[in-house]
Amino acid sequence: MKISFLSVILFTVMPFLLPAQYPNYRVSNPASKRPNEVTIAIDPVNPLNLAAGANLKFYYYSTDGGQTWTEGELYSSFGVSGDPCVTFDPEGNLYFGHLSYPIFGYWIDRIVVQKSTDGGLTWNDGAGVGYLPHKNQDKEWLIADHTQSQYRNSLYVAWTEFDKYGSSNPEDSSRIRFSRSTDFGDTWSVPLIVSDVSGDCRDSDNTVEGAVPAVGPNGEVYLSWAGPPGIMFDKSADGGATFGKDVFVANMPGGWDFNVQGIDRCNGMPVTLCDIGQSSFRDRIYVVWSDQRNGSDNTDVFLIKSDDGGATWDGFKKVNDDNTHRHQFFHWATIDPVTGNVYVVFYDRRNTAGNETDVFLAKSSDGGETFENVKVSQSAFTPNKNVFFGDYINIAAYNGKVYPIWMRMDGNNMSIWTAVIDETAPVIPQVESPVVISFALLQNYPNPFNPVTSISYRIAEPTTVRLSVVNITGRSVAELVDRFQTPGDYSVEWDAGNLQSGIYFYRLTAGKFRQQRKCILVK
Fold first, then answer.
1. Secondary structure in 3-state letters for 159-213
2. What are phi and psi of 374, to 5 degrees?
């Protein structure tokens, strides 16, 4: 009688959808100590060309897909006073929107849009938008129409107008303004008032603020913002010439202006998106925001969507998938126009203590129904509330290439960073130390193995598991890899089958679910 032993060895691997650490690249020059409020865009004509901006007047460009960056300072006769926003039009022209502070004028007396035709190497003096003496124009956002509609190449900018910025006088109010350009940014239309209800001028919860436009597949213009009722929405069906009646989207418990420890001020203003590509979610509108409905120590990021042009809105989803009472804050969102995937970037403290902060990315490939979260920063940082941190971060995506951009603070110095995420490249999981579970299968040669031998184990998160059968000398005789997407209790059975044929049967059981696999004996 001959007895031999075989064992089953399990190697657990990091969650299948989470790749190895993404490389981080510094965008800002090390000599620049206080850049903040970042923005990024991808040139659709040459997606290796990227542009970025930061407060107060920094511009950046990259020609190698974000691995190296050149920094410069923007100048205009209108002045450059922060709230940077960059965008490309379909022809590859680059635009930089910002606030003003002219020599012969006053602080934020207009919005300014400057143009570059060489990817950010050089810039024109810019055009002023929305100048109305004695009023302040603030917190703009700029986009271009990339559709095939009659409005293609149009530029749109929305912002908040204050009767007097910071005023507590009840006679002073704020409103959402909007303007468009149909000649590549050279001239701009007389601004419209979009918001039906005004806010105050305190630059806080009761101020109407954070207007971010989006474009629909047929050239519709969509716009959301935050104010006293919560998040409001309006749209234009004629390329921004006229707007309709405001629609309520969602409440914001605690308001859009809230406290996060270590940050001098924090906001949860909404970001508006629309899928204009050819995905199954084409024409779906998304609004992404953050608030403290779950507690003042637990800021979360949320998404809501509409499939009828913004007339009605589904129930909202939580974007961050942690179960902690920790902050996720300063979100921004984008849609890959080729794949239709939705990406949200935000600061995150789920894995840290105190005010230590990471950067996370959430991805939805099912139209905003579910999100996968992954950390994209290589190390945490701790902000100092005595140093102005800025009001937002940003993200851009195109054809599987995703570029979140954010600020970090080390001591009192700030720097700008991006991660280069290529979803078209093969995913190589991060391997942890093997977890080995062994048991013996007794063989009384030439009789077959005992009919069935099994082991049980628990999977805590989506995991790739390698199952190997090895003989007593360590030689692998059978192997297969399975991906377990659902956490839970599992049992594995090996059925020797017919030893001479070299066929083994592997059965996976999870609850009532039972599935049989077959693996071949390795000679």
1. EEEECCCCCCCCCCCEEEEEEEECCCCCCCCCCEECCCCCECCCCCCCCCEEEEE
2. -145, 145
* Structure tokens that stand for 458 in this block: 């628990």
Backbone angles phi, psi at 448, to 5 degrees: -70, 170
Burial of 4: CB neighbours in 10 Å, binned 0-12, 13-18, 19+ = middle
On the CB side of 33, CA atoms within 13 Å amount to: 4
Q: Coil, strand, or helix at residue 422?
A: strand
At 304, give phi and psi (nearest 5°).
-135, 155
Residue with tokens 């599935």: 515
Structure tokens at 146: 């990339």
pLDDT, tens digit, 9 for 90 and up, residues 164-174: 999 999 999 99
Check residue 21 and give its pLDDT: 72
CA gap 251, 229 in Å, rounded = 7
Domains of the chain: 2-15+429-520 (2.60.34)
- The distance of Cα 452 from the centroid of its chain, to the nearest Å, equals 48
pLDDT in tens, 137-192: 999 999 999 999 999 999 999 999 999 999 999 999 999 999 999 999 999 999 99
pLDDT tier at 93, thresholds 50, 70, 90: very high
**In the predicted model, what is the mean pLDDT of residues 509-514?**
43
What does the DSSP 8-state code read for residue 339?
Answer: T
Residue with token string 């143009």: 115
Look at strands 488-495 and 503-510 and give their pairing: antiparallel
- CA 141/CA 271 separation, integer angstroms: 10
The phi, psi pair for 5, rounded to 5°, reads -125, 140
Residue 390: closest CA among 52, 32, 35: 35
Structure tokens given for 489: 């209790």
Q: How many CB atoms lie within 10 A of CB 166?
A: 12
Cα–Cα distance for residue pair 266/346, rounded to 1 Å: 12
Q: Which pLDDT belongs to residue 456?
A: 53
Interstrand relation of 155-162 and 328-335 (parallel, antiparallel or unpaired):
unpaired
Residue 499 is given by DSSP the state G
The sign one gets for the Cα dihedral 491, 435, 16, 321 is: positive
